[in-house]
């Protein structure tokens, strides 16, 4: 251990902060690994070069840097995730979602308004992720009912959930983390409704934008299944299996077309567990290949008259795969469907072959879409991620059965009555109890959240395994690392140094407040909102003290700005979740989300100085 000038530790901390911001933004290294690397770097730095306090002890020893993992706000966030999972699993929100479909009638505008207002209201008291999981199929159903592309609905759904999370203490994990950071900095934490009035103001302005402006900026894009069908003419999707005696055996594509299938558009070729997408240059067909084609009824009739193939993938030509002859994906009335991998899915990190997808779910995976891109090569060797959309083929009853599965979410929602779930009412009462205990200050939020999670498990709404699946390891590592960096910035003077620079630049409190909002709002779109919140809270407190203003005002600014994760899909998990179902590209979020971020910045910059008397 060496004695060192404290300014060296300040600059080293700032350098680490800048490096981790870049690594989080580019995503070349997994977020978890970046977080662990940051923690290790801080532990080594302050062990080799300890920061001594008045008593000679190392202020930033291992105990201080790692105490973020026992942070009450982090525990509360994880417990609320378990409560939210209980609400999802028991179907407690399904009746509200089903009500939207019943009330939709023939008015598209009314249906969308009711849905988004409901999502905004629920998100004020429940973690945004399960809310969006529940309402993605609802938006899909509305788009199909009114003949519109789902791309016009999915992004507004995510934005409404984020806006709702701004209004109460438990609406977002960001809010809880800022409140906890205030406690660590020796300041007064938030109460349940501390920022509800300005939050409702911002949410109202944002909702008007989402309802009126956003739909005009969003694209119309076809679904995965729709892309397999030609745009013009009345075409049918069909599946052709190439038997051993077919004329197609050994045939190669010429300019992307197979000569025998000149009137048929081949969209995909399935060979065993592997899918081949156009162009099919130098690709020779084999017996047992399954072709997904789009063609008119007349063209299909001609294909089968020529003996080129047979309907349905019977795979009877391969004696070593005789067991597949009896697979449910080879017989009966087959349909195409889209399934989304949910955030807490057990499938994350596994390939289709490792999962044994067709045997487990009785459906054949035909394609994987990730962030609006169709993955072309070696589909079954790609580990699945949350938000991936699978295009599958299976019997109607097998696809419908997947609605009860929480690992994958069918993107279609039929309007039949949902089955009553005996634990749904119990889960709803638990959530209301958590909200009531926290809102009225009967117990701290962390106690109310842990009590709710325990009740969900103890009363049978969830079992231990299901509760564990609700906990996101990325949140744990990211928050722990961000709190460690925040502590280092506070103790080394890095936060005060940055705050002093901002004050010198803008002078007036109202301008400083506005600048802080804009900087955090822009950065939260390239970092995690949780990381932004924890990193900027010490800076916000230092700014407030430097200006002689109540730190609560600047902390609230961080809350709202860190929640403005609208301009990129990586800023917030719900954006990633809707990216596949909405078939968005990265630029779509920038085109629609950046104006919303700037609108909220202007609104806050005008409203906050008046409301807080600056």
Describe this structure in words.
By secondary structure, the protein is α+β, with helices and mostly antiparallel strands. The protein has helices at 6-26, 31-48, 62-66, 72-89, 94-104, 108-123, 128-145, 154-164, 173-184, 196-212, 214-217, 224-227, 297-305, 352-355, 357-361, 396-401, 424-439, 445-458, 464-470, 473-492, 494-506, 509-523, 529-547, 551-562, 573-582, 586-612; strands spanning 236-241, 265-271, 274-276, 290-295, 310-311, 334-341, 363-370, 373-374, 389-395, 408-410. It is globular, with a radius of gyration of 27 Å. Residues 228-234, 308-325, 374-378 and 413-420 have low confidence and may be disordered.
- What is the end-to-end distance? 47 Å
Low-confidence parts = 228-234, 308-325, 374-378, 413-420
Largest sheet: 5 strands, antiparallel
Mean pLDDT: 76
- The computed structural class is alpha+beta
The overall strand count is: 10
How are the strands of the largest sheet arranged?
3-2-4-1-5
Fraction of residues in helices? 40-55%
Integer-rounded radius of gyration: 27 Å
Shape: globular
Q: Total number of helical segments? A: 26
**Beta-strand percentage range:** 5-15%
């Amino acid at each position: 251990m060496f004695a060192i000038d404290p300014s060296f530790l300040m600059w080293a901390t700032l350098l680490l902060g800048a490096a981790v911001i870049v690594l989080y933004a580019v995503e070349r290294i997994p977020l978890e690994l970046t977080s662990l690397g940051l923690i290790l770097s801080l532990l080594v730095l302050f062990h080799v070069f300890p920061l001594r306090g008045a008593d000679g002890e190392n202020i930033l020893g291992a105990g201080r840097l790692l105490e973020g993992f026992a942070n009450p706000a982090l525990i509360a966030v994880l417990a609320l995730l378990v409560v939210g999972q209980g609400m999802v699993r028991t179907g407690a929100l399904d009746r509200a979602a089903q009500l939207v479909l019943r009330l939709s009638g023939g008015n598209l505008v009314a249906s969308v308004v009711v849905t988004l207002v409901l999502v905004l209201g629920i998100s004020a008291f429940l973690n945004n992720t399960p809310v969006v999981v529940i309402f993605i199929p609802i938006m899909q159903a509305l788009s199909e009912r009114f003949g519109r592309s789902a791309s016009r609905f999915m992004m507004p759904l995510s934005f409404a959930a984020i806006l709702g999370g701004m209004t109460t203490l438990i609406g977002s994990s960001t809010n809880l983390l800022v409140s906890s950071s205030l406690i660590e900095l020796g300041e007064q934490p938030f109460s349940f409704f501390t920022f509800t009035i300005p939050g409702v103001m911002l949410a109202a302005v944002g909702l008007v934008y989402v309802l009126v402006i956003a739909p005009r900026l969003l694209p119309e894009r076809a679904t995965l299944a729709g892309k397999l069908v030609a745009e013009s003419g009345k075409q049918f999707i069909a599946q052709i299996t190439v038997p051993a005696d077919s004329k197609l055996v050994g045939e190669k594509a010429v300019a992307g077309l197979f000569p025998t299938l000149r009137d048929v558009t081949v969209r995909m070729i399935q060979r065993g567990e592997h899918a081949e997408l156009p162009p099919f240059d130098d690709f020779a067909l084999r017996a047992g290949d399954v072709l997904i084609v789009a063609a008119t009824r007349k063209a299909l009739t001609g294909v089968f008259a020529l003996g080129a193939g047979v309907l349905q993938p019977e795979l009877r030509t391969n004696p070593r795969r005789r067991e597949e002859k009896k697979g449910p994906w080879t017989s009966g009335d087959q349909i195409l469907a889209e399934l989304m991998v949910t955030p807490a899915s057990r499938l994350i990190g596994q390939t289709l072959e490792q999962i044994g997808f067709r045997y487990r779910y009785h459906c054949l995976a035909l394609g994987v879409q990730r962030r609006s891109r169709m993955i072309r090569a070696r589909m079954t060797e790609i580990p699945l991620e949350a938000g991936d959309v699978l295009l599958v083929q299976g019997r109607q009853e097998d696809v419908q059965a997947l609605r009860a599965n929480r690992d994958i979410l069918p993107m279609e929602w039929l309007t039949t009555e949902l089955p009553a779930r005996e634990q749904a009412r119990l889960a709803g009462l638990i959530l209301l109890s958590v909200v009531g205990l926290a809102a009225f200050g009967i117990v701290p939020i962390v106690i109310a959240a842990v009590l709710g999670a325990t009740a969900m498990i103890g009363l049978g709404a969830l079992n231990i395994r299901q509760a564990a699946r609700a906990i996101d390891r990325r949140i744990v590592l990211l928050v722990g690392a961000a709190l460690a960096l925040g502590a280092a910035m506070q103790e080394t003077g890095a936060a005060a140094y940055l705050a002093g620079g901002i004050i010198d630049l803008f002078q007036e409190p109202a301008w400083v407040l506005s600048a802080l909002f804009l900087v955090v709002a822009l950065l939260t779109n390239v970092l995690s909102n949780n990381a932004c919140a924890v990193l900027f809270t010490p800076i916000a407190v230092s700014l407030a003290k430097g200006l002689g203003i109540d730190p609560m005002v600047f902390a609230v600014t961080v809350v709202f700005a860190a929640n403005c994760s609208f301009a990129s899909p990586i800023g917030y998990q719900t954006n990633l979740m809707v990216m596949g179902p909405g078939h968005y590209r990265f630029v779509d979020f920038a085109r629609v989300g950046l104006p919303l971020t700037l609108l909220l910045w202007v609104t806050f910059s005008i409203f906050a100085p008046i409301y807080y008397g600056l």
